[in-house]
Design brief:
Number of helices: 19
Helix content: 55-70%
Order of helices and strands: HHHHHHEEHHHHHHHHHEEHHHH
Number of strands: 4
Strand content: under 5%
Distance between the termini: 113 Å
């Protein structure tokens, strides 16, 4: 869809006359509007339910792919459990179940509405026509491409109850579950349970939906190309930033707030690799990640497959995973004289996380490079986090998700060759950079296509900074008061020393020391007793 048609769609939507007023709402008024919309949509749905739309047979594939994509969070749980002792591995399995529950409930209650409440303004997929309410903190004079939050479809009611909206909700569930899982894996069993639960609920109900609106719901990051001329806007094909970088940022906030730093290791001792407790679980989890990632990328019903190549996407995922698992094996073989299964499983996961940012936009050789760099960064980043920064991250959440997600987003600006993605984010559906049919492009493009440098790099940098800082700051604001309250309660509930012990300590401090040899105490007594020992006397007799 061209940007000209996009502007017309804003004017023709039935509820759009109120949009200029929405643009001038304050943040407080925005929260009030969300609550009123929740009440209004639930009341209307209960009083006069809309006629059920016939199911679309085209939605069968996204539903099947979304079901298979649930293997991705399962795989991450198993990879994390493979590097933990049995008791901590049990806590991780509970985190996996808790992430699914928190993500589904939070995303159903308000997350879907915040993310896709205005998606009908830019996507004409069936069943999304009524989702046309988008809020922005900027005045309407800035334009129509600065959306920041949706305002419709809360609780999957009203326009959010159509088959198309329900399919979109189901396809997003593996993504939001994985984003919710990342801080739970990092904090479960090491921080208070309610803290880990709060972090997961914060991601599923607020942080992921808002960032997702900026990227997939017609928000301002997707429109960086239209508003500021920065390439095709922020490009994140399958969640390198939206899922993995965001979840890692929340996990980092929790680790720095609640968990003590690791003890400093003596510099003269060799640094071992992370311990491997359950290598079979880690290997099984890596394989499930590979299977689920293909369906993960195909499940999104908002994708226009006419401008994409599914076969290239599948090959890129496989090559990135192969390169991601190979380099950690070689590295650990040289460093520790044995290949490490846990580091290999983490490298495979890192390769898949990195290639999720570009998907089919890069050629296969670039997918090898992206996965290989992510795999090589895995042991190096683990060393940085565990031994230099001494952060308490035994599940490697910051490495697998944060570092790999960051690299995957930057790789789009380097390796996207322009062959696919024409019209992505509404940019250049017919031609781009004076080349007909050119799609998402970076520095190294295919023959006959123009590089988009540094515009696409600037868009990627703005996007990853916005997602990472937004998630980290909001999570820190939520965790900080809780940490202060816990410290205050712990300090007040700490037991006081007994009165007798205090008196004995005071008497000991007040009694002056006596010089040795004055009354047979201290050193004099011990010398005489030692000399009078028969064994000592036999070994060293006294000579007159």
């Amino acid at each position: 869809m061209s940007r000209k048609r996009l502007a017309l769609s804003f004017r023709r939507a039935p509820s759009l006359p109120t949009l200029p007023h929405l643009h001038t709402l304050s943040p407080f008024a925005f929260l009030v509007a969300v609550l009123l919309t929740l009440l209004a949509t639930s009341t209307v749905a209960a009083a006069s339910p809309a006629a059920a739309a016939p199911p679309d047979p085209a939605l069968s594939w996204p539903l099947l792919a979304g079901g298979i994509a649930i293997l991705v969070p399962v795989g991450f749980v198993l990879v994390a459990a493979g590097g933990l002792p049995a008791e901590e591995a049990r806590q991780v399995t509970l985190a996996g179940l808790g992430a699914l529950a928190l993500a589904a409930l939070g995303y159903w209650a308000c997350g879907f509405g915040l993310q896709f409440g205005g998606v009908g303004l830019i996507h004409r997929a069936g069943g999304l026509e009524g989702l046309v309410w988008e809020w922005s903190a900027l005045d309407a004079r800035w334009g129509t491409g600065w959306g920041m939050a949706g305002l419709h479809g809360f609780g999957l009611s009203g326009s959010g109850a159509t088959p198309g909206a329900l399919a979109l909700f189901f396809a997003q569930l593996p993504w939001v579950t994985t984003a919710t899982l990342i801080p739970l894996l990092a904090l479960r069993g090491r921080a208070p349970t309610f803290v880990a639960g709060l972090g997961g609920l914060l991601v599923g109900a607020l942080l992921y939906p808002l960032a997702g609106n900026w990227i997939w719901g017609g928000g301002w990051l997707a429109n960086l190309g239209y508003n500021l001329g920065l390439g095709h806007g922020f490009v994140d094909f399958a969640g390198s930033g939206l899922v993995h970088l965001l979840g890692a940022a929340v996990a980092a906030a929790g680790i720095l707030t609640f968990l003590p730093r690791r003890p400093r290791q003596p510099s003269d001792e060799p640094i071992p690799l992370p311990p491997v407790h359950l290598p079979l679980l880690a290997t099984l989890g890596a394989l499930l990640l590979l299977i689920g990632s293909v369906a993960w990328a195909w499940a999104n019903p908002l994708l226009d497959w006419a401008s994409l190549d599914p076969a290239r996407l599948a090959v890129n995922l496989l090559l990135a995973a192969a390169a991601g698992v190979s380099l950690p094996l070689v590295y650990t073989w040289f460093v520790a004289s044995r290949p490490d299964p846990l580091m290999a499983a983490r490298g495979l996961a890192a390769g898949l996380v990195a290639i999720s940012g570009s998907g089919p936009f890069v050629p296969p050789w670039a997918a090898l490079v992206i996965g290989g760099v992510a795999g090589l960064l895995t042991p190096l980043a683990c060393y940085l986090v565990d031994h230099l920064l001494r952060w308490n991250d035994p599940t490697a959440a910051l490495t697998m998700h944060g570092v790999s997600g960051l690299w995957g987003l930057l790789a789009v600006a380097l390796f996207a060759d322009g062959k696919f993605g024409a019209g992505w984010n509404g940019i250049g559906p017919d031609e781009y950079l004076h080349v007909a049919g050119q799609g998402v492009s970076g520095l190294w493009t295919a023959v006959g296509l123009q590089p988009d440098w540094p515009g696409q790099l600037q868009a990627q940098a703005v996007g990853l900074a916005a997602i990472g800082l937004f998630a980290f700051l909001i999570a820190s604001l939520a965790f900080g008061p809780l940490a202060g309250l816990m410290h205050l309660v712990t300090r007040r509930s700490a037991p006081m020393p007994p009165i007798e012990e205090e008196q004995e300590t005071a008497e000991t401090l007040e009694t002056p020391e006596r010089p040795e040899g004055t009354d047979g105490s201290d050193g004099t007594t011990s010398d005489l007793s030692d000399a009078s020992d028969p064994a000592d006397a036999s070994e060293d007799p006294i000579q007159d």
